[in-house]
Amino acid sequence: MTNLSDFTDDEIDQILDAPGAVLKGATLADGEPGGLRFLLETAAGAKVFREAQVHENDFVRSVAVALRERIAEQSAAEEEARRNPASQVGVAAAAAATQEAATVGVRPDPEGATAEAVELTGAAVALLRARADEKDAAAYAAWVYRIAEQVAEAASTKEGGFFSRRVKVSAGEQDYLDRLAAAVGR
To answer: In whole angstroms, what is the distance from residue 140 CA to residue 96 CA?
Structure first.
């Protein structure tokens, strides 16, 4: 069985960052989603994350639990920063605040988000195929693809304009799913 402890901190970050990037990429595959569509797609992605915490594959389960813990730690740090602004004094805090301020109000880049997700996921799966148990690498690849698939299918979309019919998966989402499938070897 593969353990996260078998990897360096940078490799763990890569493994843990890929599912979130896949979720973001799937949400933005058709451009910036509207409110209801965003809610439906995010809820679908969150469901797949919750299911992974009880996944039959131990490695996928450990990745999902590590993601949950990472999010809890980030939330606690953000809460501390809100309660005690003085704790954020320093060069790193100033750099983070500057970067955050630069992105406020900036519209998301759908093509950039999907390309980043495909690249990051492909690299994470390649890393696992090279250094992890074959079953664990396959389960991880199937899991991250399932995230994208469930998000893409969460909200129907009109294709082709006002008089067009609704489709479950749009052309943009299908293109993203195809590129992701190639990246994870499906």
So the answer is: 31
Residue 103's pLDDT band (boundaries 50, 70, 90)? low
Supply the pTM of this predicted model: 0.81
Q: Three-state secondary structure along the chain?
A: CCCHHHCCHHHHHHHHHHHHHHHHHHHHECECCCHHHHHHHHHHHHHHHHHHCCCCCHHHHHHHHHHHHHHHHHHHHHHHHHHCHHHHCCHHHHHHHHHHHHHCCCCCCHHHHHHHHHHHHHHHHHHHHHHCCHHHHHHHHHHHHHHHHHHHHHCCEECCCCCCCEECCCHHHHHHHHHHHHHHCC
Assigned token pair, 75: 């939330």
- The pLDDT, as a whole number, for residue 97 is 61
Of the candidates 51, 17, 40, 50, the one whose C-alpha atom is nearest the C-alpha of residue 152 is 40
Per-residue pLDDT tens for 8-49?
999 999 999 999 999 999 999 887 667 788 888 889 999 999
